[in-house]
Amino acid sequence: MADEAVTPGGLARVLSDGRRLPMIGLGVWQVPDGPECVQTVRWALEAGYRHIDTAQGYGNEASVGTALHDSGLARDQVFITTKFLPRLRDPVAALEQSLRRLGTDYVDLYLIHWPQDGPTWAWPGMERAAESQRARSVGVSNFSEAELASVMEIAGTKPAVDQVNFNPYANRRALLQACERHGTALEAYSPLGTGRLLADRTVGRLAAEYGRTPAQILLRWCVQRGIPVIPKSTHRERIEQNLQIFDFDLSPEALASLDALDTTGGTGTAQEHKWW
Ligand code: A2P
Questions:
Q1: For the chain, give me the number of helices (H) and strands (E)?
Q2: Cα 154–86–275 angle (5° rounding)?
Q3: Of the residues 63, 120, 215, 239, which has the fewest C-beta atoms closer than 10 A?
Q4: CA distances (Å), 24 to each of 49, 126, 227, in order?
Q5: Between vectors from CA 131 to CA 126 and to CA 133, what angle results, nearest 5°?
Q6: Does any ligand 1 atom lie closer than 6 A to the CB of residue 242?
Q7: What b/e string do you get for 97-135 counting C-beta neighbours within 10 Å, with b at 16 or more?
């Protein structure tokens, strides 16, 4: 699962295609394009993050590219994820635009952002993006168990990742098990419940017990189970704090009390509505 790395941000999960997805990345959803996004990504790279997760729909790929370029880090030292916006219709052409904005000639991971108009139509284009090496790994996001199974049926190259809303309230056990059966890595977005879970009483109790922050408890709950996370923050001290999760273990009892916060009833369904 996780292995040794120079920086904690480089600790990685090995994907089904043999590539390494860092256990933690900075998510930049809702970070405005421009100086704020450039600075946020810069802070993350300085702190030791080695994965930045953006999307065509976020409108901030150019800022991610600027920060990456300014960092002076070699391209192969940083893992970049972007996501195909389904209304653009052509994954290959859309990726070319992303690469131009990012100022790079490949992304490490390219995901279908959501299964708009059905789960399978875009997959052949994703496979072409992978064949050309412009996307090193390909996968999906916001796909349910059934939607992932549909892609598996038609796929030559299997989705390496399903990035979904996942945290103790959305502890989507059935989806996690389906991903494991398919050899697809479930990657957690909104691991802090977009901030909502930080005020949870159980999380607060564990934070006091472990001498950690609520955010660290929530992120540790994922990574200790082998689930990569992409928390978002635009505050430097929080960005740094969120990386300090590889030097302690939650006990089985602590993990179980977080598991018990689940509101999905052990199903694969998150309580979010579908926005597409
Ligand atoms: P901010 O960006 O103002 O720091 P998620 O990753 O689940 O979507 O959660 C993101 C939300 O949680 C954002 O509102 C972010 O606020 C906040 N957040 C991220 N890290 C921390 C932290 N360590 N402590 C408190 N709030 C945090």
A1: 10, 9
A2: 110
A3: 120
A4: 7, 24, 9
A5: 95
A6: yes
A7: ebbebbebebbbbbbbbbbbeebbebbebbbbbbeeebb
Which residue type sits at 220?
A: R
Give CA–CA dist 41/106, Å, rounded: 18
Cα angle 61-66-67, degrees, rounded to a multiple of 5 = 100
CA distance 215 to 231: 9
Active-site residue 58, yes or no? yes
Q: What is the pLDDT of residues 242-257, one digit of tens each?
A: 999 999 999 999 999 9
**Residue 269 — pLDDT band, cuts 50, 70, 90?**
confident
pTM of the model: 0.97
Which CATH class, in words, describes the domain spanning 17-259?
alpha beta
Contact 125, 99 (CB under 8 A): no
- 142/189 Cα distance (integer angstroms): 10
Ligand 1 lined by 16 (C-beta under 6 Å): no
Nearest CA to ligand 1 atom 18: 233
Domain ranges of the chain: 17-259
